[in-house]
Design a protein that fits this description.
Blueprint (H helix, E strand, L loop, with lengths): L2 H18 L5 H14 L5 H5 L5 H19 L1 H11 L4 H16 L4 H18 L5 H15 L7 H12 L12 H22 L6 H7 L5 E6 L21 E8 L2 E3 L13 E6 L4 H5 L4 E3 L7 H4 L5 E7 L15 H5 L1 E8 L2 E2 L14 E6 L3 H5 L5 E6 L10 H19 L5 H14 L5 H7 L2 H20 L1 H13 L4 H18 L2 H19 L4 H12 L9 H7 L6 H27 L1
Antiparallel strand pairs: 1-4, 1-5, 2-3, 2-4, 6-9, 6-10, 7-8, 7-9
Helix pairs in contact: 1-2, 1-19, 2-19, 4-9, 4-16, 4-17, 4-18, 4-19, 5-7, 6-8, 6-10, 7-8, 7-24, 8-10, 8-24, 9-22, 9-23, 10-25, 16-17, 19-22, 20-22, 21-22, 21-23, 21-25, 22-23, 23-25
C-alpha cells in the first residue's frame, strides 16, 4: 500500500464512523472528506468537482422537480385514498394498496410517497381499530422494492449509472435494465410481507394516538387568578419562560388561542396557561401564588385546536439542521412558528424539559402549529411532516394541470424507453415544459430540489474517484479476489452484495453505492468478466435496506409514527433482506455472468 492509499483509507474509515455516529449531517461529513482530499493534493480541482457535473447527479436534480409537480397535483393521493377506502379485510387491503404503491415508486421519488401516505394509512387504520404498525413498515419496504425496478426509481440507481457513464465511460443502465432483478424481488418481497412478515409486525399504537389517549400525561392547565403578582408583565418577566421541566406551549384567553407563546407575550387575569414537559413537576407551579391547577377541566389535545392552530406530527430527518442542538438553542418556536408538545425516541417519550432535548434523526415531534405550517414546511429538509391530527383544508388543486404533469412524465418515460432521448435530456425537457406552462414556478422548482442530497451525491462521487485514482479500490478488489476466487464467482457476487448492503444499513445508500462501485469495477477487471453484473448487484444491494430504521430515509419516516422499536426492523427486515439477497444474486449470476 502506498501512503496515498493509506491516507484515503483512513479518511474513509473516519467518514464511516462519523456517519454512523451522526456527528454531523451526512452531506457535510462527506463534503468535508472531499475538501481534505482536494487540499491534500490527492484530488485535482477537476477531479473533486467531477461529481458536481455528473449526468446522474444532475438527472436527480431534474427528477426532484418533475416528481414535485406530480406530487403537487394531489391526484395520486386522492386516487389511492379512495382505493384504500373500498378495502375491507387487512390482507386484501395490503394487496390492494401496496401493489400500486410499489408501481408508483418505480417512477417517482419514494420519500414523498411515504410522507404522503403515512397519515392516510394511519387514519384508515385508526378508523377501523387496526394498529398502524401493521401497515407502515410494509409501506416503506414496498416503496424501496418498487424503486429497484427502473433507473429513475431511486437516486441510488442514477448515482451508479452516473459513475458508469461519467467515471468509467460505459453505456450505463437503460430505463429497465434493473427490472430483470427489480420485478422478481418486488414480487417475492410483497408475498413475504403479506404472509409471514405481516405476522411478525408488532401491534403498536402510533405516537399521536397514544398522546391523544394519555393527554393528561403530556399537558396541564393553570388558571391565572387576580392574586397572581405578574399580571400585566411579559412571560419572560413573570418567570414562565425558563421553568424546571415545563414549557409554556399556549395561552387560552377567552375564545383566543395564543400559540406559540413569545417571551414578550403579556399575561392577563383569567388566562389559561397550557404547559407541557415533565407534568410530574407541576407542583412547583402550584407554589406560585395566583396560579391554580385546573383539574376539573379535563383538557385534552383536541381542546387546543381551533381555527388558528393544529396538532402536527413530524419526524426529524437525517439532513436536519436541528440535530446536535437543543430545541431551545435551535430557536424552534421562532423559526417554525410552532411549539413542541412532546418528543418520542425509540417508541418512548423523552422525559425531560422539552427545550433541553437534543434532537436526533428519527425523533418524532408533536407540534402545536399554525394553519399555514403544512404549506410552509411540507418541503422542509429539517423534518418530514407525516401527519396532521386536524389537517387544514388543502388548497384547491387544478386537476387539468395535475393530469398534464402525470401525462408529461409518462411521455418522457416512453421517449427514454424508445431511445429518442437519454434520461437527462428527457427530464431537462420535462422541467422546461413545466416552467414554460407555469405548472411549476421557479420558486417551487427551487424548493423541490433537495440540495443537501445533491451535495452528498456529488461529494461521494469525488471520493469514489479518489479510491480509483490512488489504487485503493484495486487493492481491496485484489483482496476479495484472493479470498473469494477459490469459492467461485457466485460467492464473490454474494460478498459484494453483502458488503454493499452492510454499508447501506449503517451509513447511507448513496455513500454505500459510491464506495462499492470502484471496487466492483476493479473486481470485474481482475476476474475478466462483464462489469455490468457487479454494477447491478451494487445498485440493488445499496437500495435494499430493511434491517435498520437509519439505513434508508423511508424507514426513518415511519419509525416514530408506527411506534416501532429498533428490534421491529431487525425482526421483520432480516428475513426479507435474506430473501431479496438470494433472489437478486441468483438472477444476476444467471443473466450477467
Amino acid at each position: 500500500m502506498t501512503f496515498q492509499m493509506i491516507f484515503v483509507l483512513i479518511l474513509i474509515i473516519a467518514m464511516l464512523g462519523a456517519l454512523l455516529l451522526d456527528v454531523a449531517r451526512p452531506d457535510m461529513v462527506v463534503f468535508s472528506v472531499l475538501v481534505i482530499l482536494l487540499i491534500s493534493g490527492i484530488l485535482s480541482p477537476d477531479q473533486a468537482l467531477s461529481g458536481f457535473s455528473n449526468e446522474g447527479m444532475l438527472t436527480i436534480a431534474l427528477l426532484f422537480i418533475v416528481a414535485g409537480a406530480v406530487q403537487k397535483s394531489g391526484l395520486i393521493d386522492q386516487m389511492m385514498t379512495k382505493w384504500l377506502k373500498n378495502s375491507k379485510t387487512q390482507a386484501g387491503s395490503m394487496v390492494r394498496f401496496f401493489v400500486p404503491v410499489s408501481a408508483f415508486s418505480a417512477f417517482l421519488n419514494n420519500t414523498p410517497i411515504v410522507v404522503t401516505f403515512t397519515p392516510v394509512i394511519k387514519k384508515w387504520c385508526e378508523d377501523r381499530g387496526i394498529a398502524p404498525s401493521k401497515f407502515l413498515i410494509p409501506l416503506s419496504y414496498v416503496t424501496i422494492l418498487g424503486g429497484t425496478i427502473t433507473l429513475i426509481g431511486t437516486s441510488t440507481n442514477l448515482v451508479v449509472h452516473g459513475m458508469l457513464t461519467g467515471t468509467y465511460g460505459m453505456e450505463g443502465f437503460s430505463l429497465f435494465t434493473l427490472a430483470v432483478v427489480g420485478i422478481p424481488i418486488a414480487i417475492v418481497g410483497m408475498i413475504y410481507l403479506f404472509t409471514i412478515g405481516h405476522r411478525l409486525l408488532p401491534d403498536h399504537k402510533g405516537f399521536s394516538q397514544r398522546v391523544k389517549e394519555d393527554s393528561k400525561e403530556y399537558i396541564a392547565e393553570m388558571h391565572v387568578s387576580r392574586s397572581f403578582q405578574h399580571i400585566g408583565e411579559t412571560v419572560k418577566d413573570a418567570g414562565l419562560r425558563d421553568l424546571k421541566g415545563l414549557y409554556l406551549v399556549e395561552i387560552i384567553r377567552g375564545s383566543d388561542h395564543i400559540s406559540p407563546v413569545k417571551s414578550t407575550t403579556v399575561i392577563e387575569k383569567g388566562d389559561r396557561l397550557i404547559f407541557t414537559g415533565l407534568i410530574s413537576t407541576i407542583a412547583d407551579l402550584e407554589e406560585i401564588k395566583g396560579l391554580e391547577l385546573e383539574t376539573g377541566t379535563n383538557i385534552g389535545l383536541n381542546d387546543l385546536k381551533n381555527g388558528t392552530s393544529n396538532l402536527v406530527e413530524v419526524v426529524v430527518s437525517h439532513d436536519s439542521s436541528l440535530t446536535t442542538k437543543t430545541i431551545k438553542q435551535s430557536r424552534f418556536r421562532s423559526k417554525f412558528d410552532a411549539g413542541v408538545i412532546a418528543v418520542h425516541r425509540n417508541n418512548e417519550r423523552i422525559k425531560s424539559k422539552v427545550g433541553d432535548i437534543v434532537l436526533r434523526p428519527g425523533d418524532t415531534l408533536l407540534l402545536l402549529a399554525g394553519t399555514d405550517f403544512l404549506e410552509k414546511n411540507q418541503q422542509s429538509n429539517d423534518f418530514y411532516v407525516v401527519s396532521s391530527l386536524d389537517t387544514p383544508e388543502k388548497l384547491k388543486k387544478n386537476p387539468v394541470k395535475g393530469w398534464f404533469s402525470i401525462g408529461l412524465l409518462l411521455v418522457m418515460i416512453a421517449f427514454v424507453t424508445a431511445g429518442v432521448f437519454s434520461m437527462f435530456k428527457a427530464m431537462a425537457l420535462a422541467v422546461l415544459i413545466l416552467l414554460v406552462t407555469k405548472i411549476v414556478s421557479p420558486q417551487e422548482a427551487k424548493r423541490y430540489i433537495q440540495f443537501d442530497v445533491l451535495l452528498l451525491i456529488a461529494s461521494a462521487l469525488g471520493i469514489g474517484v479518489a479510491m480509483r485514482e490512488t489504487g485503493l479500490a484495486e487493492w481491496i478488489a485484489t483482496g476479495l479476489v484472493s479470498f473469494g476466487k477459490p469459492l467461485g464467482t457466485l460467492a464473490i457476487i454474494f460478498m459484494i452484495y453483502f458488503l454493499t448492503n452492510l454499508f447501506t444499513e449503517l451509513i447511507t445508500n448513496t455513500a454505500a453505492a459510491v464506495l462499492m462501485v470502484p471496487i466492483g469495477m476493479s473486481l470485474a477487471e481482475q476476474l475478466e468478466v462483464a462489469p455490468m453484473g457487479f454494477a447491478v448487484t451494487i445498485a440493488i444491494a445499496a437500495s435494499a435496506s430493511f434491517i435498520t430504521p437509519i439505513g434508508y430515509q423511508t424507514n426513518l419516516i415511519v419509525y416514530g409514527p408506527g411506534g416501532y422499536t429498533f428490534k421491529d426492523y431487525i425482526k421483520v427486515g432480516t428475513p426479507l433482506s435474506i430473501l431479496v439477497m438470494i433472489t437478486s444474486v441468483l438472477i444476476i449470476y444467471n443473466v450477467w455472468f
